[in-house]
Design a protein that fits this description.
It is a single chain. This protein is α+β, with helices and mostly antiparallel strands. It has 4 helices and 5 strands, in the order αββαββααβ. Helices cover 34% and strands 19% of the residues. The strands form 2 sheets. A 3-stranded mixed β-sheet has the order 3-4-5. A two-stranded antiparallel sheet has the order 1-2. Strand 1 (55-63) and strand 2 form a beta hairpin. The chain is globular, with a radius of gyration of 34 Å.
């Protein structure tokens, strides 16, 4: 092989070696980069898994059969990530477990939101709290004080402001004034 041809061959081989080295280096980087984006351990639980439900003991107040008194019913409620006051109102909507007690909130009513500010729980119900309510002044009192007395068991809550679809109402079903926050009425609770 002449020297000139040998020199070209060596240069071509060197260029080819550099090209192959660059390709391998580039391919290696690309593959390491894609490995970094893969999850390291696919057997781990997803972050969307629900947290274990925390349970708290609460006292709920439901009506007696004559709608004259509130009767306490203790139960453990699962709070999970929701505030205890939300869990209490949701349990009231579910109704009593004791068949001797009466529900105080129509089952069709929904809790839209609840927040506590300066000792007042602002409880916002859907319109069904009014439209599906059975009515009467005693029935309305049972609804109001069932909610108020149950929430008053939560530290930091002194009164409850009722809202329907986000707005204050003159009353829930035409008898009691609900334009201002309401304090609990322990005289309605039947003594054992």
């Amino acid at each position: 092989m002449p020297v000139k041809t040998k020199g070209r061959f060596l240069r071509a081989a060197a260029v080819l070696l550099v090209a192959v080295a660059l390709l391998l280096a580039g391919g290696g980087c690309g593959s390491k980069s894609s490995e970094r984006t893969k999850p390291q351990n696919t057997n781990r639980p997803q972050s969307t898994a629900e947290p274990k439900a925390a349970k708290e003991k609460v006292t709920l107040y439901f009506g007696d059969k004559e709608a004259m008194y509130l009767i306490p019913e203790e139960r453990e409620v699962a709070t999970g990530s929701k505030p205890i006051e939300q869990a209490i109102v949701e349990e009231l909507i579910k109704g009593p477990r004791n068949p001797e007690l009466s529900r105080t909130i129509p089952p069709e009513a929904k809790l839209r939101s609840i927040r506590v500010e300066n000792g007042v729980a602002y409880v916002d119900f859907s319109k069904e709290i009014q439209t599906k309510h059975w009515g009467g002044s005693a029935g309305e009192a049972m609804t109001i004080y069932s909610v108020v007395n149950s929430l008053a068991g939560v530290s930091g809550i002194e009164k409850v402001q009722f809202l329907v679809e986000g707005k204050k109402q003159e009353s829930l079903v035409g008898h009691a004034d609900t334009t201002e926050p309401i304090a609990p009425n322990w005289n309605l609770v039947k003594k054992s």
